Amino acid sequence: MEIGQLIKLERQRQNMKQEYLASGICVPSYLSRIENGLVKPSEDIQHHILMRLNIPLDSLKSEINQEKTIHFKTQFKTVINSRNKQKAETLQLDIHNYIECHPFEPNRLTLLLIETRLMLMLPDKTINIRNNLAILVEFKKEMDPEQLFYLYTIQGIVAYQNNQFSQASELFAQIFTLIKNYRMEDWEMAELYYVSSLSLLSESRYIMAIDYVKSALSYFNQELLIERSIECLIILGIAQIDTGVLKEAIATFEKAKEISLKIDSSKYNGKIEHNLGASYSILGNQNQALYHFQNSLDIKTRPDDKIVTILSLLKEYHKINDVQNAIVWLERGFEIISYLSGESKNFFKSHFNIYRALLLEENNIISIFKEALAYFEEIQDYKYCFIYCQVLAKRLADKKQYKQSTIYYQLGFNYNLKLSHVTNWEELS
């Protein structure tokens, strides 16, 4: 990076306005020209700018420390492949401290991108990530393909974590276009295939999700990254459920379970049992479904994990018209929801509100559904928009409210078009 860009980056990191940094040194417009590489500042101006940024003068003499950058990148690869949060925290702190001590390190932009990517693996880093991204976006035009790869990946993961699945998929698609003429390393491509498969799965684009997760699985198997392979098998199994190949899905989950037993790891058992329950539920084997859901719930410890299976138990009992047990799990769900936070709380509250309206025959059922539909539309989760429109339309039709029922059948159809990424009815043929 040039001197002007490094000044701009450091100023933004310190949340300092151009007017403040320029005050008494030069006019803000001249500082802007320096930061944009249009002019090179004199030594006197550089000296005063560094003093105001509280940066030692000898920082300008920093040379590219390729060995240090290579060292950080090697560790970064290990952390991403292993998804080890403790190692991620250690490396993130090491990079942060290095940047603090070497504010004019020429590779600083790349290091800031790596640091931000590591933060995505750590709790309570939301504000730091947001601040770093605001800085990084300012340098988008100056980034090379590798740096853009990192930036779009970070933005895609943030979008996915915020349940903005379409936006996440679009960002990951941009990466594939970006690197057509640029060769990324195999481990980076495996991670891209992995995170892309997650967003595609959430968007109900199952065939592409299967292709991508199989590509990631191939790399993780080759590198003997067993836990990452288990993660991929779980994603593959879920996609197989949604494409209707249930026996294959069960075989995939059983394979994941077998591998977990071999490496004596219980880390993914809750997810595996849950998805075995989901597979048997669709097959109509309620006893097996309830058995695996209960196993999953017994294994899980975190409220965010438990709520997923509690919702499935509620659905299962509601499906077989066991109202008494359904209400039991409805109440359990609302108890757990109180321990959730952020988007997770809003997401599950919307589901449980709908089931409460259905089970308790609440009078304001339309307003409850409308509120839930507005939420799912906002996060672009068109699958649940479609499902709940059909549920409400049928309930209204059963009560002979045919005009209202027709409205929601039509609305559900429109959501299904969005879910299928269809813009014109001709594309349905």
TrEMBL record:
InterPro entries recorded = Cro/C1-type_HTH (IPR001387), Lambda_DNA-bd_dom_sf (IPR010982), TPR-like_helical_dom_sf (IPR011990), TPR_rpt (IPR019734)
Gene3D superfamilies registered for this protein in UniProt: lambda repressor-like DNA-binding domains, Tetratricopeptide repeat domain
Q: Which Pfam families match?
A: HTH_3
Cite the CDD domains for this sequence: HTH_XRE
PROSITE patterns linked: HTH_CROC1
Boundaries of each HTH cro/C1-type domain copy? 7-60
Name this protein carries in UniProt: Helix-turn-helix transcriptional regulator
Q: What's the source species for this entry?
A: Psychrobacillus mangrovi
